[in-house]
Specification:
It is a single chain. By secondary structure, this protein is of the alpha/beta class. It has three domains: 168 residues, 3-Layer(aba) Sandwich (Alpha/beta knot), CATH 3.40.1280.10; 58 residues, Orthogonal Bundle (Trp Operon Repressor, Chain A); 168 residues, Aminopeptidase. Helix content is 35%, strand content 23%. The strands form four sheets. The chain has a seven-stranded mixed β-sheet, sandwiched between helices. The chain has a five-stranded parallel β-sheet with strand order 2-1-6-5-7, sandwiched between helices. Bound molecules: S-adenosylmethionine.
């Protein structure tokens, strides 16, 4: 691809386009970007490129002659090829990725004409210009910034400029959607963690998550684009159903933080436990005190209860107790793998709006970090064997099933527990 930019500021314009990725592509000969000084083609002694507008009015207009002479030189230099002469103009068609793609695919040479002052003589446009392109509905002082934008966006689609085609086909606007969010190291920054799925190493899951995020953010940020996007594939329809089902769930936009529950938090904590673990609240806290309130007070006083905050909002809780616990030794059909001291994670939940947001995974990881800081070699968890949601959560967090833990609850009911464990590295 060859791009010739006709401008009154060739040095500035060229300097930008000869840097970085596009600059390197230029050095390798994959693209050829040249900037031409329109003033060099004037035929008057003052090298004047502009004059007063006929009919009066403010400012000056660029004359047709230097523009035409410059264009002739550009065409003469390039010779026969698939060429498009484009005037950068606020009156042109608004530029977009589809136009960039068309220009990259359909032409060998683009000549980008930059106006200045009040613009250029209309007769040059009529005589020589194939197409007018606008950078957007605003007015710039000159066409250079627009020409640089067009040159950059077209060049990055030329094979060899970026390392792989996927570098631009996965980006915003290629298929009518915005790109998914991106993250790099560290895993946690200012209390904000990278979504767990991106750390899972499961490429299929990562791809699915990315497509879903792409759909979701286009829906939120650019409903105009979303309406036009082709989302007819089976996979997209399934993802859209999922998004619809979860539309009231929270997206983790605020910082999350752990807080050791204090006695002040008891009312909030009691309410959370009662609403999140209905019917089980009293029996799940295993300090064997008669009521949930007493059990919670005891756990809080032992420093075992933790609340996870999303911004200022208490969004979930867990209890991390010190092992050993005799009832865990009752494990059948398997055994615990880690010797040494362990932490026991029990009674964990997040409030329903946060389900599916990644907060539960984050909370479990926080519990592991806490146990590690307390010098534990493993974390053990006991859940009811029918608690599928907890099983999935533990699986995502790399806890492993170790065996069954049958028992009888204080109220005489049979309890069918299962033990899961994770070593702390
Ligand atoms: C101040 S503008 C002239 C605007 C012109 N008098 C009008 O109202 O349509 C000077 C030059 O900047 C460039 N320019 C300004 N806004 C632009 C935009 N939105 N997109 C592309 N080029 C633009 C054009 O090359 C134009 O000739």
């Amino acid at each position: 691809m060859r791009i010739d930019i006709m401008t009154l500021f060739p040095e500035t314009t060229g300097a930008v386009l000869h840097e970085s990725i596009i600059g390197r592509a230029g050095k390798k000969g994959i693209v050829d970007i040249r900037c031409w000084q329109i003033r060099d083609y004037t035929e008057n002694r003052q090298m004047q490129v502009d004059d007063y507008p006929y009919g009066g009015g403010r400012g000056c207009v660029m004359m047709a002659q230097p523009l035409k002479s410059c264009l002739d030189a550009v065409i003469g230099d390039a010779g026969e090829c698939r060429r498009r002469v484009i005037y950068m103009s606020p009156q042109g068609r608004p530029y977009d990725q589809a136009t960039a793609r068309r220009l990259a695919e359909d032409y060998d040479q683009l000549v980008l004409v930059c106006g200045h002052y009040e613009g250029i003589d209309e007769r040059f446009i009529e005589e020589c210009v194939d197409e007018e392109i606008s950078l957007g509905d605003f007015v710039l002082t000159g066409g250079e910034i627009a020409a640089m934008a067009v040159a950059d966006s077209v060049c990055r689609m030329i094979p060899g400029v970026l390392s792989e085609e996927i570098c631009f086909t996965e980006e915003s606007h290629w298929d009518g959607l915005l790109e998914y969010p991106q993250y790099t190291r560290p895993e946690e920054w200012q209390g904000r963690r990278v979504p767990e799925v991106l750390l899972s190493g499961d490429h299929a899951k990562v791809d699915r998550w990315r497509r879903r995020m792409s759909l979701e953010r286009t829906m939120q940020k650019r409903p105009d684009m979303f309406e036009k996007a082709d989302l007819s594939s089976r996979e997209d329809r399934k993802l859209l159903e999922e998004i619809e089902k979860n539309k009231n769930r929270v997206t983790l936009t605020e910082k999350t933080a752990l807080k050791m529950a204090s006695e002040e938090d008891l009312p909030v904590l009691t309410e959370m436990v009662r609403s999140l673990l209905p019917g089980e609240a009293d029996r799940l806290f295993v300090h064997e005190l008669p009521s949930l309130e007493e059990n919670l007070l005891w756990a809080v006083q032992c420093g075992e209860c933790w609340i996870i905050l999303h911004g200022e909002e208490p969004a979930g809780f867990f209890c991390l107790r010190e092992g050993p616990a005799e009832h865990l030794d009752e494990i059948r059909d398997g055994k615990w793998h880690y010797d040494g001291s362990y932490g026991i994670l029990d009674s964990f939940a997040v409030i329903p709006r946060y389900r599916g947001s990644g907060l539960s995974d984050r909370m479990i990881r926080e519990a592991e970090v806490l146990a590690g800081a307390q010098g534990k070699t493993a974390v053990r968890v006991e859940i009811h064997r029918r608690n599928e949601a907890a099983k999935k959560l533990l699986d995502r967090c790399s806890f492993r099933f170790r065996g069954n833990i049958p028992g009888i609850l204080p109220d005489g009911q049979e309890w069918r527990g299962q033990g899961f464990e994770k070593g702390i590295s």
